[in-house]
Structures are given as structure tokens and as C-alpha cells.
Amino acid sequence: MPLLSIDHLSIAFGAEKLLDDVSFQLDAGERICLIGRNGAGKTTLLRLLTGNLQPDTGDLWRQPGLRITTLTQELPADTTATTFEVVASGLVGLGEMLAEYHEAVVRLAHEATSEQLQRVERLQHELEARDGWRWQQRVETVITRLQLPADTPLAELSGGWRRRVLLGRALVGEPEILLLDEPTNHLDLETIQWLEEELLEFRGGLLFVTHDRALLQRLATRLLELDRGALTSWPGDYAAFVEKKAALLDIETRHNAKFDKNLAQEETWIRQGIKARRTRNEGRVRALLALREERLHRRERTGKARFELEQAETSGKLVIEAKNLCYAWQATPLIRDFSVQIVRGDRIGLIGPNGSGKTTLLNLLLGRLAPDEGQVRLGTKLEIAWFDQLRERLDPEQTVLDSVAEGRETVTINGRERHVIGYLGDFLFTAQRARSPVKSLSGGERNRLLLARLFSQPANLLVMDEPTNDLDLETLELLEELLLDYSGTLLLVSHDRAFLDNVVTSCLVFESNGVVREYVGGYSDWLRQRPIPAPPPARSVKPAQPAPPSTPKPASPGKLSYNARRELEQLPARIEKLEQRQQELQTLAADPAFYKQIPEAVTQRLEELRMLEAELEAAYERWAELEET
After folding, report:
1. Is the N end or the C end of the chain the one with fewer CB atoms within 10 Å?
2. Which residue would you say has higher pLDDT here, 276 or 404?
3. Where among 105, 122, 156 does a domain terminate?
4. Is the pTM of this model over 0.85?
């Protein structure tokens, strides 16, 4: 039995229908990827499924009591809320009380007054009356499984960790259906891989929209394509879809050509006048009217974008040479003793967690930022074009036309002048859309606008910081083809694994403690070449950073004293014992019966937990200090 189904559903905005008499169903255990061009109506369909939008016609059926959760791109407005509070907010009607109880228990550990104890007891009674303990255990289980820092404010977390918190909020209510709209945007590779594993374990129905072909390939049990208002189910993986879709479009093209030829012949015949109006030809006239009606309602496939890059004069053979670069931010080393030589024609990808220093390294290599130590030498005849990940260079009040033309009527592409309207048409902007303000554009349209402006500049060194976000799959593959044919030099920051594999010739990978190493090939090549990290010891969920410290490597006798080496060897076992005791005390404190003891006993245990957490943090810091020596 399906979890939900839609039957003959239609909805229109303006003259054309985004969804035209579509039907499909979603079953438990299915992981469906919804694909389609930018603006095809994918987000509209998701909003219909959640009930945030009503169709013009058709039926939408959901199982009674069905729980649907959407992982939104937007972060909560209240970023001062703690992780626990945000996750608990996924429990409608109960989350606020659970968050208040959690905050009261934490405060009691530091402020053991009779007023605080009475507050905890009052909240206990209210939760017992509403079966709150089962749901509190559910919140704590989700936080533990996702390794979230429960008491850290959301504002202090990176974008990747905020995404984990939002997924925790989505999962805590045990939904039967999970809807995801571009879940990997702005996530680093490590967090994307973590997200894959979490979604593979999800047992409900999953419907997701993504441009990440690696995620699509691994997760999807089938594809659902939205094209010109029609919804088509495609079994198999993305590679099979591309092949079958190309064959179907070829058949459609031949059929349309044959239809148009027949229509043209009949239009010629009808113009013969009196012969066409004879009684014996009335059937042929009716058939012609039917052909005209069919042609009127044919929806043409949106044109394919056509990218052409303005090539600058060839640069010198040497593009960038860096020697022994070092750079630190607030005493934290981002780049340490890094050297590289980049020559004309190199296509280099930068890989690393969010906040590791990828944009900083680009600024160092291009001379926009001075290193603390080391030297950078730029080659000759360099003309640089930079794709801005955060889109800061787009004025929302400007029109699309002015953003590219800057007052001109034409742009020059490889020595050939083109009218700006025609040039923007290559990026799928109609004349009307070209005169619209930037603030009215969707995410995909803004990305295409940035590409249009970037490619109109003469360049022999392209710097692209996350260019793939919000692009549809077809445009993404076209961008790949353009970069593969590009004769200049490319520096690319991307978390799209397939894009890296298909485009770059080598990767600069950010490893621990500011170390950046170069690997030949793309993302998959790096995975094969990189050293296999040793598993870290068990850790609590306190830290707010995506990756726990790696297992310490034995230090050489010349760097650490005998006592320090012994301390370093014993630290993992000590940390493990502290964590076990911490877990025991946390379990004890989570039991409602714990607070029914005399206040002195409660205070004593909570004080022990507080001191234990401080000792554990000190052990982590000492471990990191010895490991870096």
C-alpha cells in the first residue's frame, strides 16, 4: 500500500501548467530522485506533497496520520537556540517543553538552588502526564546517533554541522516520508558522505531533488523526471536514464518532424481554395483543424544552454609558483609550509572541509592576500576571471541585462560581436527575463547569470568557487564539456565528486593541521592514493567540529621526552574511561527518578558530572598539544 499518491493532478502559474495531469505514488522504502530543468516545477511538487500548496485539479491522497518532514535549505531564524532545542522543535506540541526541561537540568548542574530543583520537578510531572519521557529519549538518541553537540548554540556551528542539526530535527518525529530539496548545497565532502549513510538507513519513503550525481547514483531506487508538465518514472540508475532519455528524445524529434511535414502539406492544400471546400473534402478539412489544435498544444522542450568562453591571450608557461607558504588565522594554522607549481593548462581542484582554508589559499596564490611566510610568483600575461560562490558581486536591483552588459549593447566573444540579448539567450534567458531584476531570479538562474558574466570576460585563468550549486543536471554536464575544452588554467573549489572526477587533472587536499598535499587525478583518484586514517578512540558528543581528532601517531624520541611519550600513549585509554563514566552519569541524570532523591545527593552527582566534563576537555586539549609537538 502506498504512503501517498497523486492522481491526474494539475497546477498552473500563468499560461503554462507546471504539472499537467500527473500521477505517481511513493511506497515505504523507496528512495526517489526528482529531476528536471531549473524552473520545471520540482519545488512546486514538493510543496504540493506537504500540503503547503493546493492543486488546481486532481487528487492527492495520504495515509491517515502520515508524518511528512521536509529538510529545508533555510536555517531557523533563531540561531541562538541550542542544538537540543532545534532538534526537539521537530516534535510539534512537545518539543518546547522538552527543550525547557533539558535547559533546566543543565542549569541545575551549575546552580543547584531549591528554585531550580522545584522547576525541574514541575517539568517532570508535566512530561510524565504527556508521555514525554519516551520522546525525550528519542531526542537524545537522535543527537547521539548524529554525534551532535547538544548544548552548543546553532550560531556557533559551521554550515555542515547546522545541516546535521536540521536533519536531526527532521528525523526526530519518526516521519514516514522525508522530502529533501538540494540537501548537499554548501556541504563539504565529509558531510555529504555522512548524509548518504544516514539516508541509506532511512526506512521510510524518501523523495529528493539533487544535482549531485554521485549522491543520486548511490541513493536513488528510481528516477522521477518532470519535463514540460509531464511526470515520468524511470527505473534504473542515472546512467541508464541518460541513455534511454536520449533515445526517447530522438524518437520525439523524428515524430515531430514528420508531423510538421504533414501539417505543412495540408496547409498548402487548404490554400487551393474551392477544391478544399467541396463536400467530399470536409473530412480532410476537419483532420487539418485537428492537426492545428495538436500543434498548438505541443510543448517544445526548453532549449539547451550554449556556453562559449571568451579566450584571452595565451598566458606564459608558468602560471603560479608558491614556495613554503604559511598562513594562520587567530593563531590557527590554515596553510603550513605549502609549495606548488601551476603551469598553463592545469585544471586543479581544491578539496577540504568547510572552513579549512580553500578560499584563503586561492587568495594567497593570486596575490590578494600576503602570506605570513613564503613567496608567491605569478606568471606573465595573466587575465583572471573569478566565479563568486557567495554571489556578492550581483546587485539585486540591477536587471539581468545590465549585470552583463554594463551599459553596452554588445559583448565580444572570441573576436565576434554579439547583441547582449542574444548572448543571454545562450544561457536560457528570454528577452523578457533579461529585463527582470536580479532579485527575482531563482538560485539556478543566478548561477547561470554569473556564468554568463564570467564567460564574457577575456580570461586565461579561471577561478571557480562552487560553480555547480543549483544548476540542473543538463547544464552541469554542459559546463563540464566547456571546461574540458578550455585551453587556459583552472582553479576549482567544488564538493561535487562527479564534477571533480570529470574536470580536474590534480587535487590540492587540505589535511590536518594546515597541511595541503597534491594528488594526481580527480576525487576518486585521491581516495585511492590517500593514506588510510587510523580510527579515532571513542568520543563524547561534545565537540562542535565535523571531524574528531585522528589517533595520535607515535612521536619520535627527539621531539618528546620519555614522560611526555608515556603520557601520550596512555591518553586514549584515560579518555575512554572518562567517557564511560560520563555516559553513566548522563544516563543517571536523564532518569526522572534521579531527581526524587534528597537535593544534596542530586547536587553531588551533577557537580561530579560537571567536573568530569571539564577534565575530559582538558584531556582532549593535552592530547592535541602532545600530538602536534
Report:
1. N
2. 404
3. 156
4. no
